[in-house]
Amino acid sequence: MVQHRDVKKVVLAYSGGLDTSIILKWLQTEYGAEVVTFTADLGQGEELEPARKKAEMMGVKEIYINDVREEFCRDFVFPMFRANAVYEGTYLLGTSIARPLISKRLVEIAHETGADAIAHGATGKGNDQVRFELSAYALDPDIKVIAPWREWEFKSRTDLVDFAEKNQILVSKDKRGEAPFSVDANLLHSSSEGKVLEDPDVAPPAYVFQRSVSPEDAPDKATTITIGFAKGDPVSIDGKTMKPHELLAALNDLGRDNGIGRLDLVENRFVGMKSRGIYETPGGTILLVAHRAIESITLDRGAGHLKDELMPRYAELIYNGFWFSPEREMLQAAIDHSQQHVEGTVTLKLYKGNVIVEGRASPKSLYSDALVTFEDDHGAYDQKDAAGFIRLNALRLRTLAKRDGR
Predict the structure, then answer these.
(1) Which of 157, 178, 199 is the endpoint of a domain?
(2) Are residues 169 and 217 in the same domain?
(3) H or E segment and range at residue 388
(4) Is 182 marked active-site?
(5) Rounded to whole angstroms, what are the CA distances from 290 to 267, 312, 333, 369?
(6) 268 with 190, same domain?
(7) Does some domain include residue 326?
(8) Binding positions for L-citrulline (predicted)?
(9) Looking at the domain assignment, is residue 162 inside a domain?
(10) Is 74 a catalytic residue?
(11) Are residues 130 and 210 in the same domain?
(12) Residue 285 half-sphere exposure, CB side, CA atoms within 13 Å?
């Protein structure tokens, strides 16, 4: 635990919501510290100016509100998608990949403002506390980190509301009771968990979903799109070149309208417990299918299979908060090297929750009509060669069979 006397100035990851507003006041009263607020525009779709006004009302002099959507997509989301990263087979890591960027900015702002510490609003039961703090320590080994949920004495929502009222923090009517579930959102996804979602055997209420129409309500006519790739990254939709954050936003709109990207998952948290989450990743779901499709014709078999072997480890590193670790950077270097010739176009059909590959083309394609045709291949492949290939591969199997009397 950080000693109060050692902290004079703190940079707080601040959303402007009730919890982080209470944390702001708590830092001012319990630590007697000057608070600098940082609010990241990660494409969560919320108006951020109210956060500035609330911080000003609470006496904050240094307020940072940064649009980091482009950096988020370019330097975090797209590198992750080059690896086709999914955690435990299905989760596209939407929350996990945002945390190292937030931590990076918190540490940078601490250096800019001469702050002694950073603070976050993650609870002591979740993964985010680990992600925030591992990232911060990797970037500044001497930074102090304050995690109020691990320190304060508040036990319930009522305790928080009482503290807010005693300290003139505005509490809206909908915040006085227990929230039906908690939400985290950014340009890549939205995540909902807790309360009405805690029983994994009960289907989520329809109102939980915020990023997509239900597949049943999606249009009866399919939407066809073509995504262009260069060095493993998406660069265009239907021939129109876009910046990374613009492209992901456009894919989100397409996915939303076609009921794509819903996931109901029970996952294994790094801290040891299982949790149930409802995720919506419309654009990311489309992108994963498209990227694997363009890789299918541009990656060598050995490189592609090795990537698939490395991917679970890479995904786990991101999930557990080790984005800034040397092993993640080593894996990233190998993954990025594999993407040098991953370019071309993929045509997809989007229909009622499905992403269907209709075609893929690349000037760097390894697919050869001459080799796979059932017609005369003009000597491109001598089928007689397969006999020796099979005999050599069968040698150890035949030897085993003779020994075992089969």
Answers:
(1) 178
(2) no
(3) helix 385-403
(4) yes
(5) 25, 19, 22, 22
(6) yes
(7) no
(8) 91, 96, 127, 131, 182, 191, 267, 279
(9) yes
(10) no
(11) no
(12) 28
In the residue annotation, 190 being an active-site residue is answered as: no
- Domain residue limits at 243: 183-299+341-361
The two tokens of residue 110 are: 């601490």
Which entry of 69, 99, 105, 276 is annotated as an active-site residue? 99
Residue matched to tokens 């992901």:
248
What distances in angstroms separate CA 155 from CA 19, 23, 126, 170, 183, one per listed residue? 13, 14, 16, 20, 20
Q: The tokens of 218 are what?
A: 């999606």
Judge whether 112 and 140 are in contact, CB under 8 Å.
Answer: no
- Does 21 map to a domain? yes
CA distances from 288 to 109, 129, 248, 291, 356 (A): 34, 28, 12, 5, 12
Number of domains, the chain = 3
Q: How far is CA 158 from CA 124, 162, 178, 305, in A?
A: 19, 6, 9, 53
Which CATH number is 102's domain given?
3.40.50.620
Active-site annotation holder among 116, 128, 184, 233: 128
CATH of the domain at 259: 3.90.1260.10
Residue 393 in any domain: the answer is yes
Q: Minimal CA–CA distance to 106: which of 22, 20, 170?
A: 20
Structure tokens at 119: 């603070």
List the chain pLDDT tens, one digit each, 406 residues: 676 778 999 999 999 988 999 999 999 999 999 999 999 999 998 889 999 999 999 999 999 999 999 999 999 999 999 999 999 999 999 999 999 999 999 999 999 999 999 999 999 999 999 999 999 999 999 999 999 999 999 887 788 889 988 998 877 656 666 677 889 999 999 999 999 999 999 999 999 999 999 999 999 999 999 999 999 999 999 999 999 999 999 999 999 999 999 999 999 999 999 999 999 999 999 999 999 999 999 999 999 999 999 999 999 999 999 999 999 999 999 999 999 999 999 999 999 999 999 999 999 999 988 788 777 667 788 899 999 999 999 999 999 999 999 8
Give the span between the Cα atoms of 291 and 54, in whole angstroms: 42
Per annotation, catalytic residue among 52, 74, 182, 292: 182
Instruction: Specify whether 99 is catalytic.
Output: yes
Are 41 and 159 contained in the same domain?
yes
CA–chain centroid gap for 26, Å, is 30
Which of 178, 194, 210 is a domain's end point? 178
Q: Are residues 47 and 100 in the same domain?
A: yes
